[in-house]
């Protein structure tokens, strides 16, 4: 088997158009066909050592269709919000009147994107953080819409007030859901699962918790917890506390010990718990009513 050719530095970290690389003399056509390169979409390649994340695939698709704007969950991925899996279809929006696109791994919508709601990011045109949030807020189901808004605020730095303003001004399909979802978002959850837990608690009739609460004891910082009922000294944590890494496990155990020493009870929630909401709500209620 022939050796893998050394990749030019200009082509090592990002997708590129093969025709341009050949025209620039960076590669020959034969080299482009070697096993050093992965074909992402027609005419678009990436070095074989580069991970094919959803964000990278979105950039690759936008290179192939330069008149497109990256939208939806793909836009969220470009802004750093982990809402789309690596294998999920890339969403592009192309102007009205363009020819339909039927390419594996790409889903194309045809409509006009307001120029005020798009900008260049990561080398491609993408809907702005706030416009992306409003778009996803209008898509069912409601809980996932709220989670998307929270992630774009927390991860990408989108402005929640601006998102709500744009949602109020929006018209057309999904506008009512967008207003509802943006009103329910708080922009504090550090993961979609935390949003799902918060919304479950909100609709359960339990007392309203404080999100991302800093626990202090004798004026000293103890820990920040996902949800808290400070008066009752009860915290709720999604199961991100527990990891396989021994050092991280030790730090998590020390953190739990500090909370316990400060007089707090911690309720842990897992993905499996969210599939049994009644049991989870009952467990939280029992923790809130437990006599110390």
Distance between the termini: 71 Å
Query: Count of helices?
Result: 12
Radius of gyration: 23 Å
Give the class from helix and strand content and strand pairing.
alpha+beta
Q: Give the tally of structural domains.
A: 4
CATH superfamily of the largest domain: VSR Endonuclease
Q: How are the strands of the biggest sheet laid out side by side?
A: 9-10-11-12
Task: Describe the protein's architecture and organization.
- The chain has 4 domains: 9-47, no CATH class; 54-127, no CATH class; 130-187, no CATH class; 194-289, Endonuclease, Chain A.
- The mean pLDDT is 92.
- The longest helix has 16 residues, at 246-261.
- Helix 6 crosses helix 9 (192-202) and helix 7 packs antiparallel against helix 8 (175-184).
- The strands form 4 sheets. Strands 9-10-11-12 form a 4-stranded mixed β-sheet.
- A hairpin with a 2-residue loop joins strand 7 and strand 8.
- The chain has 12 helices and 12 strands.
- It has 292 residues and is an alpha+beta fold.
